[in-house]
Specification:
5% helix; five-stranded mixed β-sheet; six-stranded mixed β-sheet; Immunoglobulin-like; mainly beta
């Protein structure tokens, strides 16, 4: 049997279905016509066909001294109000630009000047754009159509190649096959990590360098001349809707300051399988962190001004309060190294943590003890002390 069609004679306003549902039934009254909700579905779908396509941003790398605006182009297939949203890596809304009027079906462009909503320049970082379109003809549609690639693309692990430290110019030389948010850490081959040089900051594809004085995180011993020095550089690929604001590359990301009542977060979606673990993290909680490692205040000093260890003593490790909050949400373990050799670990750690160390087998001379906090989500903190 052929189903009856709902024609224009059933409505008083072209393009709009005016209706009401008969209470507790699957039947609707559309201007006097009684129809099943099964017949209504195809009619509603016809008004839910708004799409956003052919989206691009130019330039993808915004140079404030050279470029005036970033142009985000797109195509819509029916008249709509469109809004361009700009988010930072924390998923905080930084700026929105409205079309202000209904845009006709076809190609359009919205522009962004690379600044915050208050007109302030933004720090060098990656920013992410989304588009929201609200149909001008489908009054039944309450939710806008959203174009957002933030969680659908990117997140793959990016490994640096040709990584080398030159102790003469005191620079780490490396190359990235793709623009990425990277971590650069230094340590000893098959041993411990002794410092974080780049802490989750953006670096562009291609040949790169980073200055390093060759010393460990605590500036206790020179690591750059060690024959087994290892420099680890890896990161996560950016999503396809990322726009970079160019500038001097930082050691760690900085963000625009927002008041609590100004914070609006993007509605994030689950990441696809196979992405790097750091791609799943809340960005402001994805970082390596400082550690404090201390001996008792009343310990004797050697002639060289170093702590003089003569017997069993407490070694205390602590973190900043904000880092404790971060680590408690992801679990962590504590590891102690003596002269790059593992001497103690605790997989059920808490902070502050005091380890009673007995140096009875330790020979004379100068020694180094390092405490490393290893977050189970791939974050590290370390501190080294020197003693005799």
């Amino acid at each position: 049997m052929q189903l009856p069609r709902l024609t224009a004679s059933a409505v008083t306003r072209p393009g709009v279905i005016e209706m009401k549902q008969i209470i507790n039934s699957k039947t609707w009254i559309v201007h006097g016509l009684i129809i099943s909700s099964l017949l209504l579905a195809p009619v509603m779908a016809a008004h839910a066909g708004l799409t956003i396509a052919n989206v691009s941003a130019e330039p993808a790398i915004f140079k404030p001294a050279k470029d005036k605006t970033i142009k985000v182009g797109f195509t819509i297939n029916e008249p709509a109000h469109v809004q361009l949203n700009i988010y930072d890596a924390r998923d905080y809304l930084i700026r929105n630009i409205s079309s202000k009027k209904v845009l006709s079906a076809g190609n359009h462009t919205l522009t962004w000047d690379g600044r915050s909503a208050s007109g302030q320049p933004l720090p060098p970082e990656a920013y992410y754009y989304t588009l929201e379109a609200k149909s001008a003809t489908d009054e039944l549609s309450e939710k806008p159509v959203v174009y957002d690639l933030t969680d659908k693309t990117g997140g793959e692990t990016v490994y640096a190649v040709k990584v080398e430290y030159n102790p003469k110019d005191k620079k780490v030389h490396y190359a990235l096959p793709a623009t990425a948010r990277i971590f650069m850490r230094v340590g000893i081959e098959k041993g411990n990590i002794y410092g974080t040089l780049i802490n989750g900051a953006i670096r562009q594809a291609g040949q790169q360098t980073w200055s390093w004085d060759g010393w460990d995180q605590s500036h206790v011993f020179e690591l750059g001349t060690h024959p087994k020095l290892q420099v680890y550089v890896e990161g996560i690929a950016l999503s396809d809707n990322a726009i970079l604001i160019d500038g001097p590359p930082p050691a760690m990301p900085t963000y625009v300051s927002l008041k609590p009542d100004e914070i609006v977060r993007r509605k994030a979606q689950p990441k696809p399988p196979g992405v790097n673990i750091h791609a799943r993290h809340q960005r402001e909680l994805c970082r390596d962190f400082p550690v404090t490692l201390t001996l008792p205040d009343n310990i004797k000093q050697s002639k060289q001004g170093l702590p003089l260890i003569t017997g069993k003593l407490p070694v205390k490790m602590d973190l900043r309060p904000e880092d404790v909050v971060m680590l408690e949400s992801q679990r962590f373990e504590l590891v102690y190294y003596l002269n790059n050799n593992l001497v103690y670990e605790n997989e059920v750690s808490y902070v502050p943590y005091t380890w009673i160390w007995d140096p009875k087998t330790l020979s004379g001379g100068t020694h180094y003890m390092t405490a490393v906090v290893v977050g189970f989500d791939g974050h590290f903190g370390m501190s080294t002390i020197k003693f005799q």
